[in-house]
Specification:
By secondary structure, the chain is α+β, with helices and mostly antiparallel strands.
Length: about 700
């Protein structure tokens, strides 16, 4: 017999309601208004009191209780859901001429529109994860990522944990819409991002490349407690559908944003109205001057036509609104001193010169190092150690040393002499004819081993989640790793003995390694081995031609040259790899550890024929062998795709790999069969041809969202 709950005393019910009201009020003062009235300890005491009451009387817990913000729900998967209205991305302009052309294009799109009638709502452009929050009768009911613009992932439990998101809309009931879809960006402040990475590094886990990646990685977790532990913020920038009992009170973008703020949301700092297109130019210039002091990473400004009726009249292109545009900033530069040039040895033995700089703030990021690529670049840029130099950083791109400030030379500067011996192992280095790189050819070089293992666990290798470069270095230092095969010998007990590594974290590492071994297909393993000249694309081609590493090792140079992307140089590198004793021992070790995928398993003769005597289709075997989604379920299955221009966050090889893993056929030219053209900086004639043919144009960000890599 189940005992009935005793009724909740009225004074307890009233106290719970009062605690919810106080916690939401003080949470808004702290996270939205940045004007707290009580100390953290007082807030925590109120929170604990409510938590205790809800545990004693579960019926007191409401859908807008602040205790929901601690997270803890673990979902089996992130379901998909369609947006009521499509979430478009924005076109970009990069200078005043392009901005003025954009305005002229708007005027041509709406013949009755006059330049003097245009006012613009301006916001700083923060690069976060686009999100839509749905409120019904004032309560948060659904949170959706942007996804492909039409359909997003449901992340409601995770977004409930974001402290500045109202669980119930503020304001008098008559002023709260019955339905409201609020759109914005999930971001982190620069200060919070730096603190998060410091915690990640201290824990021996992978740090994040930029705040957007950290925000996206936090939101798209199945365990909501992960998001609860991250310093996420939601910055509203607009709305989807909205419905009131009476007439819509919002007539302009300014009305929308101020109205959203009154309902409890944070809007972008310094967002304001510009009364003309000319004022937009000055507003953007001022923001560019202030970007170093801005709390969030910025890469530009967003200009939106203020009048909502005019927005509706202008409408949308196939991919972006005609009434709004992202006005991007120029690359960020700063001047500093080149203190030294040091050599890093990579996994293939390549010696890369790295500039050691006097620390300098470039666009909110302190830069202390920048790659110089090779000896020829140092000579071509005429860089001397001790020079005053210009450092450049565009968005999240790795800092680049532009060149020296020659007029500031005082005579103490000195040239850099490339070393004749490897700084890690002391062996002589070699530069082959026709190559720019100097190389250490000692496969036992400690740096080559270290970087090879880092590559093995990286996204270009087996993509072992939670095992990053810093953890690899710690494991090597503790003599737990001497080769990639040692990864599969790791045990929870020896990992837990590491500093800042408890049993729970150790178990996760072992589980991640085991999961990567189970999922690894032949192409991924081939790429992970780091064979010279064999990247992810060539690895796939080799795996299709040779069913196993045994077959590949036995192939002649002539056989290898029959494979697409494999010429004499690549064939020679493959033969050299399999001829080396150390590599053969590694391969046998991996085989002994159970990592030996075969692309096309042998089919017994008795079952080789189908019901009608036909052959079994190899297509049914490919998805499992590659360790990826089935072709029919891949996000770009059956689509034809082309990249053009310089991508900001991806190398061309990585972009191609991601596209192919998503099911796309990546081609080299524009034709009518092309489904998508992914456009980076300086795209050239391919963009014009694609537009003429009516082919869908994607930005790099849209491409990443389409394949689910936001």
């Amino acid at each position: 017999m189940i005992a009935a709950h005793s009724p909740v005393p009225e004074n307890t019910r009233q106290r719970a309601a009062e605690l919810r009201r106080l916690l939401e009020y003080h949470s808004r003062r702290y996270y939205v208004m940045d004007d707290p009235e009580i100390a953290d300890a007082e807030y925590d005491a109120l929170f604990r009191e409510l938590l205790l009451l809800e545990r004693e009387h579960p019926e007191l817990k409401t859908a807008d209780s602040p205790t929901l913000r601690v997270g803890g729900a673990v979902l089996p998967a992130l379901p998909a859901k369609a947006h009521s209205l499509r979430m478009y991305s924005l076109d970009n302009v990069f200078d005043l001429e392009e901005w003025r052309d954009f305005v002229k294009k708007m005027l041509r799109s709406a013949p009755g529109l006059r330049l003097e009638d245009l006012a613009f709502w301006m916001e700083p452009k923060m690069d976060g994860l686009a999100m839509e929050l749905v409120y019904e009768n004032g309560l948060l009911t659904t949170a959706l990522t942007r996804g492909d613009g039409s359909t997003g992932e449901v992340v409601t439990e995770n977004m409930r944990t974001v402290k500045n998101i109202p669980l119930r809309l503020a304001g008098a009931p008559e002023r709260v819409p019955s339905l409201l879809e609020v759109r914005g960006e999930v971001v982190m402040t620069k200060k919070d991002f730096a603190a998060l990475n410091a915690r990640q590094e201290a824990a021996g886990t992978k740090s994040f490349a930029n705040p957007r990646n950290a925000a996206a990685g936090s939101v798209r977790q199945l365990d909501s407690s992960v998001a609860a532990g991250r310093p996420l913020r939601f910055i509203a920038y607009g709305m989807g559908l909205a419905a009131w009992a009476g007439a819509t009170p919002w007539k302009t973008q300014e009305d929308v944003m101020l109205g959203i703020r009154e309902l409890g949301f944070t809007i972008a700092p310094r967002a304001s109205l510009c009364s003309s297109a000319l004022d937009v130019e000055e507003w953007r210039r001022r923001l560019s001057d202030q970007r170093d002091d801005f709390p969030f990473e910025l890469d530009g400004a967003v200009a939106k036509v203020n009048d909502l009726d005019t927005q509706r009249e202008l409408g949308f292109t196939a991919r972006a609104p005609r009434f709004a545009v992202a006005f991007k900033f120029a690359a960020m530069q700063a001047e500093t001193t080149l203190k030294d040039i040091v050599i890093q040895v990579g996994r293939t033995g390549v010696l890369t010169p790295v500039a050691v700089l006097e620390p300098v703030n470039v666009g909110g990021v302190v830069v202390q190092r920048a790659t110089l690529h090779n000896e020829d670049e140092i000579k071509s840029k005429q860089i001397l150690i001790g020079d005053s130099v210009i450092v450049q950083r565009a968005g999240d791109v790795i800092p680049e040393l532009v060149g020296p400030v020659v007029e500031k030379r005082g005579g103490r500067e000195r040239p850099f002499i490339f070393p004749e011996r490897c700084p890690e192992c002391g062996n002589h280095v070699h530069r082959e004819e026709g190559e720019a790189a100097w190389r250490c050819v000692n496969r036992a070089c400690p740096a080559v081993i270290r970087e090879s293992i880092k590559h093995f666990v990286s996204k270009a290798g087996l993509d072992i989640q939670g095992v990053g470069g810093k953890l690899v270095e710690r494991l090597i230092d503790r003599r737990l790793l001497k080769s990639p095969a040692d990864l599969f010998r790791l045990r929870t007990d020896n990992l837990a003995a590491l500093d800042r590594m408890g049993e729970k974290s150790a178990a996760k590492v072992v589980e991640a390694v085991d999961e990567a071994k189970k999922k690894a297909g032949l192409p991924r393993l081939l790429s992970a081995l780091g064979i010279r000249h064999v990247g992810e694309q060539t690895a796939k081609a080799l795996a299709q031609a040779f069913p196993s590493l045994d077959d590949l090792a036995a192939a002649s140079a002539e056989d290898l040259r029959q494979v697409p992307d494999v010429g004499p140089e690549v064939a020679a590198a493959i033969k050299d790899f399999f001829a080396e004793d150390g590599n053969r021992r590694l391969l046998q070790d991996l085989k002994d550890q159970g990592l030996w995928p075969v692309l096309r398993p042998p089919v017994p003769a008795a079952s080789a024929a189908g019901a009608e005597g036909g052959q079994i289709s190899l297509l049914s075997l490919l998805p499992e062998a590659f360790g990826g989604p089935t072709p029919s379920s891949a996000p770009l299955a059956g689509k034809c795709l082309l990249f053009t221009g310089s991508l900001e966050k991806l190398s061309r090889g990585e972009a191609r790999r991601l596209a192919e893993e998503a099911g796309a056929d990546v081609v080299s030219s524009v034709s009518r069969k092309l489904d998508y053209l992914v456009v980076g900086d300086a795209p050239g004639a391919k963009l014009d041809k694609a537009r003429d043919l009516g082919i869908a144009i994607l930005s790099e960000k849209e491409f990443m969202e389409k394949i689910g890599r936001t």
